[in-house]
Design goal:
Shape: globular
Order of helices and strands: HHEHEHHHHHHHHHHHH
Distance between the termini: 105 Å
Radius of gyration: 23 Å
Strand content: under 5%
Largest sheet: 2 strands, parallel
Length: 274
Protein backbone atom coordinates (compact mmCIF):
# COMPACT_ATOMS: atom_id res chain seq x y z
CA UNK A 1 0.00 0.00 0.00
CA UNK A 2 2.84 2.35 0.89
CA UNK A 3 4.50 1.65 -2.44
CA UNK A 4 1.27 2.50 -4.27
CA UNK A 5 0.89 5.79 -2.38
CA UNK A 6 4.54 6.66 -2.95
CA UNK A 7 4.21 5.97 -6.68
CA UNK A 8 1.07 8.11 -6.84
CA UNK A 9 2.78 10.97 -5.00
CA UNK A 10 5.78 10.87 -7.34
CA UNK A 11 3.50 10.83 -10.38
CA UNK A 12 1.63 13.92 -9.14
CA UNK A 13 4.85 15.72 -8.20
CA UNK A 14 6.30 15.10 -11.64
CA UNK A 15 3.10 16.04 -13.47
CA UNK A 16 2.56 19.40 -11.75
CA UNK A 17 5.94 20.97 -12.59
CA UNK A 18 5.68 19.66 -16.13
CA UNK A 19 2.37 21.41 -16.75
CA UNK A 20 3.44 24.54 -14.87
CA UNK A 21 6.62 24.81 -16.88
CA UNK A 22 4.63 25.19 -20.08
CA UNK A 23 2.80 28.22 -18.68
CA UNK A 24 4.90 31.37 -18.83
CA UNK A 25 3.74 34.93 -18.34
CA UNK A 26 3.54 36.99 -21.53
CA UNK A 27 3.36 40.70 -20.80
CA UNK A 28 2.79 41.52 -24.48
CA UNK A 29 -0.27 39.26 -24.56
CA UNK A 30 -1.71 41.06 -21.54
CA UNK A 31 -1.25 44.63 -22.77
CA UNK A 32 -4.69 45.12 -24.35
CA UNK A 33 -6.68 43.78 -21.39
CA UNK A 34 -4.55 45.54 -18.78
CA UNK A 35 -4.64 48.74 -20.81
CA UNK A 36 -8.43 48.69 -21.13
CA UNK A 37 -8.76 48.16 -17.39
CA UNK A 38 -6.54 51.17 -16.73
CA UNK A 39 -8.70 53.32 -18.99
CA UNK A 40 -12.13 52.22 -17.79
CA UNK A 41 -11.17 52.29 -14.10
CA UNK A 42 -10.13 55.91 -14.52
CA UNK A 43 -13.19 57.01 -16.47
CA UNK A 44 -11.35 57.22 -19.80
CA UNK A 45 -13.32 55.74 -22.74
CA UNK A 46 -11.69 52.65 -24.26
CA UNK A 47 -13.85 52.65 -27.40
CA UNK A 48 -11.69 52.18 -30.54
CA UNK A 49 -8.50 52.43 -28.47
CA UNK A 50 -5.85 49.92 -29.51
CA UNK A 51 -2.67 48.98 -27.70
CA UNK A 52 0.29 48.04 -29.88
CA UNK A 53 3.62 46.57 -28.78
CA UNK A 54 6.48 48.17 -30.70
CA UNK A 55 10.19 47.39 -30.77
CA UNK A 56 11.38 50.99 -31.09
CA UNK A 57 10.80 53.96 -28.79
CA UNK A 58 7.02 54.47 -28.44
CA UNK A 59 5.67 57.55 -30.19
CA UNK A 60 2.16 58.36 -28.98
CA UNK A 61 1.97 61.92 -30.29
CA UNK A 62 -0.74 60.86 -32.78
CA UNK A 63 -3.07 59.29 -30.20
CA UNK A 64 -5.69 62.01 -30.70
CA UNK A 65 -5.97 61.03 -34.36
CA UNK A 66 -5.40 57.26 -34.42
CA UNK A 67 -6.40 56.15 -30.89
CA UNK A 68 -3.37 53.88 -30.76
CA UNK A 69 -1.24 53.56 -27.62
CA UNK A 70 2.21 52.21 -28.42
CA UNK A 71 4.02 50.26 -25.71
CA UNK A 72 7.70 49.34 -25.73
CA UNK A 73 8.57 45.65 -26.01
CA UNK A 74 11.90 46.45 -24.33
CA UNK A 75 10.07 47.84 -21.28
CA UNK A 76 7.62 44.94 -21.25
CA UNK A 77 10.56 42.53 -21.06
CA UNK A 78 10.95 43.62 -17.42
CA UNK A 79 7.29 42.93 -16.56
CA UNK A 80 6.66 39.59 -14.89
CA UNK A 81 3.01 40.00 -13.88
CA UNK A 82 -0.04 42.19 -14.49
CA UNK A 83 1.05 44.79 -11.93
CA UNK A 84 4.30 45.32 -13.78
CA UNK A 85 2.64 45.26 -17.20
CA UNK A 86 0.22 47.89 -15.88
CA UNK A 87 3.20 50.00 -14.82
CA UNK A 88 4.61 50.00 -18.36
CA UNK A 89 1.25 50.69 -20.02
CA UNK A 90 0.18 53.33 -17.49
CA UNK A 91 3.39 55.26 -18.05
CA UNK A 92 2.63 55.55 -21.77
CA UNK A 93 -0.92 56.68 -20.97
CA UNK A 94 0.68 59.18 -18.58
CA UNK A 95 2.72 60.68 -21.42
CA UNK A 96 -0.47 60.99 -23.48
CA UNK A 97 -2.41 62.64 -20.66
CA UNK A 98 0.42 65.12 -20.09
CA UNK A 99 0.54 65.81 -23.85
CA UNK A 100 4.30 65.32 -24.06
CA UNK A 101 4.28 64.23 -27.70
CA UNK A 102 2.34 67.29 -28.86
CA UNK A 103 4.33 69.56 -26.55
CA UNK A 104 7.57 68.42 -28.18
CA UNK A 105 6.12 69.03 -31.64
CA UNK A 106 4.93 72.53 -30.67
CA UNK A 107 8.34 73.43 -29.25
CA UNK A 108 10.01 72.05 -32.37
CA UNK A 109 7.74 74.19 -34.57
CA UNK A 110 8.48 77.36 -32.61
CA UNK A 111 12.21 76.84 -32.11
CA UNK A 112 14.13 75.67 -35.15
CA UNK A 113 17.84 76.49 -34.68
CA UNK A 114 20.15 77.09 -37.61
CA UNK A 115 22.80 74.51 -38.57
CA UNK A 116 25.49 76.68 -37.01
CA UNK A 117 23.62 76.93 -33.73
CA UNK A 118 23.11 73.16 -33.66
CA UNK A 119 26.82 72.51 -34.20
CA UNK A 120 27.93 75.16 -31.73
CA UNK A 121 25.58 74.13 -28.94
CA UNK A 122 25.51 70.36 -29.47
CA UNK A 123 26.63 69.50 -25.93
CA UNK A 124 24.23 71.99 -24.39
CA UNK A 125 21.36 70.72 -26.51
CA UNK A 126 22.13 67.09 -25.59
CA UNK A 127 22.04 68.01 -21.91
CA UNK A 128 18.80 69.95 -22.37
CA UNK A 129 17.23 67.09 -24.31
CA UNK A 130 18.16 64.53 -21.64
CA UNK A 131 16.85 66.82 -18.92
CA UNK A 132 13.57 67.31 -20.78
CA UNK A 133 13.16 63.56 -21.32
CA UNK A 134 13.83 62.77 -17.67
CA UNK A 135 11.43 65.51 -16.54
CA UNK A 136 8.68 64.23 -18.82
CA UNK A 137 9.27 60.63 -17.77
CA UNK A 138 8.96 61.61 -14.12
CA UNK A 139 5.70 63.45 -14.81
CA UNK A 140 4.29 60.46 -16.70
CA UNK A 141 5.34 58.12 -13.89
CA UNK A 142 3.31 60.08 -11.34
CA UNK A 143 0.24 60.02 -13.57
CA UNK A 144 0.82 56.28 -13.95
CA UNK A 145 0.77 55.81 -10.18
CA UNK A 146 -2.70 57.40 -9.98
CA UNK A 147 -4.00 55.33 -12.87
CA UNK A 148 -2.65 52.10 -11.35
CA UNK A 149 -4.11 52.77 -7.90
CA UNK A 150 -7.56 53.52 -9.35
CA UNK A 151 -7.41 50.30 -11.39
CA UNK A 152 -6.42 48.18 -8.40
CA UNK A 153 -2.81 47.57 -9.39
CA UNK A 154 0.10 47.86 -6.96
CA UNK A 155 1.91 51.12 -7.88
CA UNK A 156 5.15 49.85 -6.33
CA UNK A 157 5.42 47.65 -9.44
CA UNK A 158 6.55 50.76 -11.31
CA UNK A 159 9.59 51.00 -9.04
CA UNK A 160 10.31 47.33 -9.69
CA UNK A 161 10.15 47.74 -13.48
CA UNK A 162 12.47 50.75 -13.32
CA UNK A 163 15.04 49.09 -11.08
CA UNK A 164 15.00 45.78 -12.97
CA UNK A 165 16.65 47.55 -15.87
CA UNK A 166 20.39 47.77 -16.43
CA UNK A 167 21.96 50.60 -14.48
CA UNK A 168 24.52 53.03 -15.84
CA UNK A 169 28.20 52.97 -14.93
CA UNK A 170 27.54 55.89 -12.58
CA UNK A 171 24.70 54.03 -10.89
CA UNK A 172 27.03 51.13 -10.18
CA UNK A 173 29.83 53.42 -9.01
CA UNK A 174 27.48 55.26 -6.64
CA UNK A 175 25.99 52.00 -5.35
CA UNK A 176 22.45 52.91 -6.32
CA UNK A 177 19.81 50.96 -8.26
CA UNK A 178 19.07 51.50 -11.95
CA UNK A 179 16.94 54.56 -12.67
CA UNK A 180 17.38 55.58 -9.03
CA UNK A 181 16.20 59.17 -9.60
CA UNK A 182 12.99 58.10 -11.34
CA UNK A 183 12.32 55.27 -8.90
CA UNK A 184 12.83 57.57 -5.91
CA UNK A 185 10.45 60.08 -7.48
CA UNK A 186 7.77 57.38 -7.65
CA UNK A 187 8.50 56.20 -4.12
CA UNK A 188 8.30 59.72 -2.68
CA UNK A 189 5.05 60.43 -4.51
CA UNK A 190 3.47 57.21 -3.26
CA UNK A 191 4.65 57.92 0.28
CA UNK A 192 3.06 61.39 0.10
CA UNK A 193 -0.19 60.62 -1.73
CA UNK A 194 -0.76 56.91 -1.05
CA UNK A 195 1.15 56.08 2.15
CA UNK A 196 -0.95 52.95 2.76
CA UNK A 197 0.41 51.44 -0.45
CA UNK A 198 3.92 51.45 1.05
CA UNK A 199 2.63 49.29 3.89
CA UNK A 200 1.41 46.70 1.37
CA UNK A 201 4.93 46.35 0.01
CA UNK A 202 6.06 44.28 -2.97
CA UNK A 203 7.48 40.80 -2.64
CA UNK A 204 10.57 40.65 -4.82
CA UNK A 205 14.31 41.13 -4.45
CA UNK A 206 14.38 44.20 -6.72
CA UNK A 207 12.03 46.08 -4.42
CA UNK A 208 13.79 44.91 -1.26
CA UNK A 209 17.12 46.07 -2.69
CA UNK A 210 15.61 49.41 -3.67
CA UNK A 211 14.31 49.91 -0.13
CA UNK A 212 17.88 49.82 1.19
CA UNK A 213 18.62 52.82 -1.01
CA UNK A 214 15.28 54.56 -0.40
CA UNK A 215 15.40 54.20 3.39
CA UNK A 216 18.80 55.87 3.44
CA UNK A 217 17.54 58.74 1.26
CA UNK A 218 14.50 59.25 3.50
CA UNK A 219 16.69 59.25 6.63
CA UNK A 220 18.96 61.90 5.15
CA UNK A 221 15.97 64.02 4.22
CA UNK A 222 14.43 63.81 7.67
CA UNK A 223 17.67 65.10 9.15
CA UNK A 224 17.58 68.16 6.90
CA UNK A 225 14.73 70.66 7.37
CA UNK A 226 15.32 72.24 3.96
CA UNK A 227 15.07 68.88 2.21
CA UNK A 228 11.92 68.01 4.15
CA UNK A 229 10.36 71.32 3.21
CA UNK A 230 11.31 70.81 -0.44
CA UNK A 231 9.83 67.29 -0.40
CA UNK A 232 6.49 68.55 0.95
CA UNK A 233 6.40 71.44 -1.50
CA UNK A 234 7.35 69.29 -4.50
CA UNK A 235 4.78 66.56 -3.94
CA UNK A 236 1.98 68.87 -2.84
CA UNK A 237 2.40 70.57 -6.21
CA UNK A 238 2.81 67.25 -8.06
CA UNK A 239 -0.35 65.81 -6.50
CA UNK A 240 -2.41 68.80 -7.62
CA UNK A 241 -0.86 68.98 -11.09
CA UNK A 242 -1.27 65.27 -11.76
CA UNK A 243 -4.92 65.22 -10.67
CA UNK A 244 -5.72 68.36 -12.68
CA UNK A 245 -4.19 66.98 -15.87
CA UNK A 246 -6.08 63.70 -15.58
CA UNK A 247 -9.37 65.55 -14.97
CA UNK A 248 -8.83 67.97 -17.85
CA UNK A 249 -7.86 65.14 -20.20
CA UNK A 250 -11.17 63.41 -19.46
CA UNK A 251 -13.33 66.53 -19.68
CA UNK A 252 -11.78 67.38 -23.06
CA UNK A 253 -12.71 63.94 -24.33
CA UNK A 254 -9.23 62.45 -24.40
CA UNK A 255 -7.26 65.51 -25.49
CA UNK A 256 -4.45 67.15 -23.54
CA UNK A 257 -3.85 70.89 -23.46
CA UNK A 258 -0.79 70.51 -25.69
CA UNK A 259 -2.83 68.45 -28.19
CA UNK A 260 -5.26 71.37 -28.40
CA UNK A 261 -2.42 73.88 -28.92
CA UNK A 262 -0.81 71.75 -31.64
CA UNK A 263 -4.18 71.36 -33.35
CA UNK A 264 -4.69 75.14 -33.39
CA UNK A 265 -1.23 75.76 -34.80
CA UNK A 266 -1.92 73.31 -37.62
CA UNK A 267 -5.38 74.64 -38.46
CA UNK A 268 -5.23 76.48 -41.79
CA UNK A 269 -6.24 80.13 -41.59
CA UNK A 270 -9.27 80.58 -43.86
CA UNK A 271 -8.68 82.95 -46.74
CA UNK A 272 -11.21 85.60 -47.55
CA UNK A 273 -12.00 86.75 -51.03
CA UNK A 274 -13.16 90.23 -51.84
Amino acid sequence: MKKVLLSLFIAIAVAIPASAATTTYSSAARVQEVGEKLLTSNGIPKTNVQFMVVSDTPNNSEFVNNKVINVSSAELAFAGNDNETAAVVATEIGHIIMGHGSKNKVISMLTTPTTTEVQTNAAVQTFASNYKTTKQDKEADLVAVNLMVNAGYNPLALIVVLTKQTGTYWDTLAGRPANAEKAMNVYDYISYVYPNKLKVGYGCNEYRNFLLYADNQVSLRKENKKLTKLYNKTYTKAKKKTANNITKFKTRGGISGWDAVYGLLNTPIPTTTK
